[in-house]
């Protein structure tokens, strides 16, 4: 805390008195919150600071190099890979609090000149306006928690407005996602990445004219909207090329979707001055993301926790062979943070678990069991975690947001 | 043999609506009845089916789906007695008019007398209704307020909003319409069986499964107000 207060002074010279006071309030609130053990306090302090100075995000981000990362899936992982790719002394909202209160708290507590911000999709226009990031990564847009967030096309329209207001911002974006391509129509500086598609149901009809899209290698619509030529390409086999030249990439994280996340980090790295050849060797240092992917201990049993909050998230996990070679447990809740409506289970390709016996857990275990039963997957419903086998071979736990948090609390690092 | 047509899933499938087709096929198959699910895309010829499913969608795609249906033989098939489940945007399309992209009224298929305007607030949350004394549970997420003319509602609202806070959906010939979106047939196995029995013209043998436990759990979780 004393160090943090000490670092206030150099910044004070560049900030208004009001902003400096607000920053101090952020730090004090968070310290108090930690002392009272009311969680990590990152959001509480940020809220206090924004109340005192609504422009605090803008003041705290001035004079820093900022990479913002947004999209439905892969934000947290891509942000971690970007911090690694960028070298040393890189700050970030590492707790995953990805709205302005979380950004303010992270920025107030860190003097880092290089900062990676993971940003909630709905808040991205606000953050771009406040922080003027050097690069904005747009990973993908798909259905997520529809009972809370605006539907995906409305979100894309808000992004379109953001791009019109900031056309010269540099974007690193998914060329295979029609919603993102349409949103970026007015952007003048874009690095496009071509991404293999395992789930595209949200983008079957044209975001501009609603006519059905044609897929023939690249996608296009009769209205003229089409897939732009990408300088970075990821093949179905996970091979990455940049301007046609193969990029050597080894990751500790599994799955094709993490190759996609890593490619975004490399492409954004190039924009902020880190050549891919320099950044790529740093990426294997990222081994787990807030407990995900790493092996943890449940009683005497090794478990691997995977987070999946929406159909596209489940699709990429079940597409990865390493997921389906172990026993699979699926834990589904429907708290506010998860979205109160688990209808999305029917858009996720759980039929890929056919021939497994899948254990169904969480508040909505009967919903997932019914979903699996319909597709002929053998479902076992278990109400209490203590009734699960706490010894045996590796088990993969696929959980949505609050169920994942519960599993993090119930397990320890291996 | 029962053929289930999923209409324009690329336009009307926002909330797991494809799940309803899977449920119908599954519940027919476990009774020894062959079932096939056919997806009808925009530009495809409307297939001959026993049950047609219309799901939820966003404004632009909803308008596009309405046009595709208008230029097809769908209305004649409904009048000939085809069984239909229409959910959310699908419900609005079958009516007289609906609002998309602001407050502009857009002509529906006029199969039933139902006018949908834009409500002051969005209706988001659990929906529970009584359909001729049987509880229907689901989740609604829509901005529409639907006023029925000379058409019977499907259910009386016990929790949530439905059409207007009092009633939900409508029932017309063999058309069932509700604001309970997404996999409403997974949550309400009795309604899935009723649709199958209507389409087949014969009652079905009882079938117990985990879906019955889910239905009982949702009925407990969402109490009548």
What are its keywords?
heterodimer, A: 414 residues, alpha/beta, UDP-N-acetylmuramoyl-L-alanine:D-glutamate ligase, Protein-Tyrosine Phosphatase, Chain A, 2 domains, nine-stranded mixed sheet, seven-stranded mixed sheet, disordered N terminus, B: 225 residues, six-stranded mixed sheet, four-stranded antiparallel sheet, globular
**Over the alpha carbons, how many angstroms does the gyration radius of chain A reach?**
22 Å
Largest interface in this structure: A-B, 32 and 36 residues
Please summarize the sheet with the most strands of chain A.
9 strands, mixed
Look at the structure and give the CATH class of the largest domain in chain A: Alpha Beta
> At the third CATH level, what is the topology name of the largest domain in chain A?
UDP-N-acetylmuramoyl-L-alanine:D-glutamate ligase
Poorly predicted spans of chain B: none
Order of the strands making up the biggest sheet of chain B:
2-1-3-4-12-11
CATH 2nd-level architecture of the largest domain in chain A? 3-Layer(aba) Sandwich
User: Strand order within the widest sheet of chain A?
Assistant: 2-3-1-4-5-6-9-10-11
Overall CATH architecture of chain B: 3-Layer(aba) Sandwich
């Amino acid at each position: 805390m004393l160090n943090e207060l000490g670092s206030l002074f150099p910044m004070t010279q560049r900030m208004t008195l009001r902003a400096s006071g607000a920053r101090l309030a952020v730090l004090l609130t968070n310290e108090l919150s930690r002392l009272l053990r009311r969680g990590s306090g990152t959001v509480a302090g940020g809220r206090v600071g924004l109340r005192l100075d609504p422009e605090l995000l803008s003041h705290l981000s001035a004079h820093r190099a900022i990479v913002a990362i947004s999209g439905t899936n892969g934000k947290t992982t891509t942000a971690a890979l970007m911090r690694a790719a960028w070298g040393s002394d890189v700050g970030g909202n590492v707790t995953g609090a990805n709205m302005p209160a979380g950004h303010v708290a992270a920025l107030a507590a860190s003097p880092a000149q290089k900062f990676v911000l993971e940003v909630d999709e709905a808040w991205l226009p606000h953050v771009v306006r406040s922080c003027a990031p050097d690069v904005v990564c747009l990973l993908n847009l798909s259905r997520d928690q529809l009972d809370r967030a605006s539907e995906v096309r409305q979100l894309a329209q808000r992004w379109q407005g953001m791009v019109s207001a900031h056309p010269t911002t540099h974007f690193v974006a998914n060329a295979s996602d029609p919603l993102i391509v349409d949103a970026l129509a007015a952007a003048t500086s874009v690095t496009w990445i071509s991404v293999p598609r395992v789930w595209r149901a949200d983008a079957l009809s044209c975001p501009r004219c609603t006519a059905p899209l044609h897929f023939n290698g690249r996608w296009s619509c009769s209205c003229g909207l089409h897939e732009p030529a990408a300088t970075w390409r990821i093949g179905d086999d996970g091979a990455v090329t940049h301007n046609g030249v193969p990029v050597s990439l080894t990751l500790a994280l599994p799955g094709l979707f993490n190759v996609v996340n890593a490619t975004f980090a490399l492409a954004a790295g190039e924009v902020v001055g880190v050549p891919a050849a320099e950044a790529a060797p740093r990426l294997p240092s990222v081994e787990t993301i807030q407990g995900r992917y790493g092996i943890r201990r449940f009683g005497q049993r090794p478990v691997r926790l995977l987070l999946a909050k929406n159909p596209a998230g489940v699709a990429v996990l079940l597409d990865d062979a390493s997921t389906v070679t172990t026993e699979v447990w699926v834990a589904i809740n429907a708290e506010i943070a998860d979205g109160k409506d688990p209808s999305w289970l029917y858009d996720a390709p759980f039929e890929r678990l056919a021939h497994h016996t899948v254990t169904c857990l969480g508040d909505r275990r009967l919903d997932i069991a019914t979903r699996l039963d319909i597709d002929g997957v053998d479902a076992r419903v278990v109400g209490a975690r203590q009734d699960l086998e706490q010894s045996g071979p590796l088990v993969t736990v696929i959980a949505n947001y609050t169920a994942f948090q519960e599993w993090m609390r119930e397990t320890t690092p291996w | 043999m029962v053929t289930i047509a999923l209409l324009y899933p690329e336009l009307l499938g926002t909330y797991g609506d494809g799940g309803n087709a899977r449920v119908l096929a599954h519940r027919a198959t476990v009774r020894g009845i062959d079932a096939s699910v056919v997806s009808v895309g925009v530009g495809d010829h409307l297939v001959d089916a026993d049950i047609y499913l219309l799901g939820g969608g966003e404004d632009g795609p909803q308008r596009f789906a309405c046009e595709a249906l208008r230029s097809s033989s769908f209305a004649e098939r409904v009048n000939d007695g085809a069984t239909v489940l229409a959910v959310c945007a699908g419900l609005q399309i079958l009516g007289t008019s609906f609002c998309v992209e602001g407050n502009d009224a857009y002509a529906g298929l006029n199969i039933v007398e139902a006018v949908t305007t834009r409500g002051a607030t969005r209706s988001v949350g659990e929906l529970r209704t009584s359909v001729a004394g049987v509880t229907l549970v689901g989740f609604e997420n829509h901005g529409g307020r639907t006023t029925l003319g000379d058409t019977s509602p499907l259910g009386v609202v016990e929790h949530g909003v439905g059409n207007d806070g009092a009633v939900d959906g409508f029932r017309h010939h063999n058309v069932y319409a509700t604001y309970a979106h997404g996999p409403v047939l997974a949550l309400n196995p009795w309604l899935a069986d009723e649709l199958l029995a209507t389409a087949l013209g014969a009652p079905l043998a009882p079938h117990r499964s985990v879906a019955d436990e889910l239905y009982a759990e949702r009925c407990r979780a969402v109490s009548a107000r």
